[in-house]
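Appendix C reproduces, verbatim, an entry submitted by the partner laboratory led by Prof. M.T., so that reviewers can inspect both the input and the predicted structure.
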Amino acid sequence: MRIVAVALAIAVLPAAASAQGGPSFDCAKASNAIERAICKNPELAKDDREMTAVYSALAARLAGSAKDHLARDQVGWIGNRNRACGGDVATIAACLKVRYAARTANLKVFADGVYPFISEHAVYKAGKVGKITYTIDTRYPQFDGPTADFSAVNRTFADNAKKSDEEATPKPDSGVEREQAWSYEQAFALHRPSANAITVAIDFYGFSGGAHGFGGTACMLVDLRTGKSVEPDGVFVPGDAWLTLMVGLVGADLREQFAKNPGFDDALEPATLAKMLREPGHYCWRTDRLELIFNAYDVGPYSAGAYQVVLPYSRLRSLFRTDGPLAR
């Protein structure tokens, strides 16, 4: 109960702090480098006020287990923030800027409909193996809702985080005799395409030697009614009409993009594109549109970066299942 009380105490501070132009907490009582950095930086103070205001408004709407869950998650988020955002003043500020933006956006998603009981889990590590220094900063969601069994979804996120951790940690045969700086960062953004579904977009970037780093975005649609992840054919009506439509729309869009940013022409072959469009990780279902994301090497070289195709739901909704996660 102390954790809940602390988080709820945080929630009542924004109004007074905002009037003073400071953060949501009393700078006279700043107890660590993170809080002192926020107090000295007007932009960070503003970010802190805005995030806490969104949190406060959401907490005021909730009751019982939902309110307690949000409070525990907020305290956990603050702890994760404090552990990860270290270094010099500029490094701390950059870390906080990213974290506040992500937290504020996710809290707004929590408030859009029934509270979804999603908590942030984090792994932060820093060390040195031989002459390789490394940092790992991984954040991933856990679905804690009591109305469905989310164990398979949660296991996927946790297992992927563990795998990334292992791959980003140098081994004795990783060329440890050479000075190197490895890093891996992962965050998640939430979107709510309907009352019954949450999209988790995992953004990641890492460097473990070599000519360049690696990164991208992978998305998962979660049905809050069943606790399961949903593939594209679980959103669209049975049959291949949806796939035929998607191949045509996506192929035409990518072809236009290739005119300015050349990709792999063979990726636009209908059979090749159809196979790729069955893969759920490309589908980032948002509030009013579908964003299809193709990371480096999916349809183009590393130098071309990621490609994105945006399709409004008005072009797709006629093919959505009437009992599916995106039905309205």
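The CA atoms of residues 61 and 176 lie 53 Å apart. Additional entries are available on request from the coordinating office.
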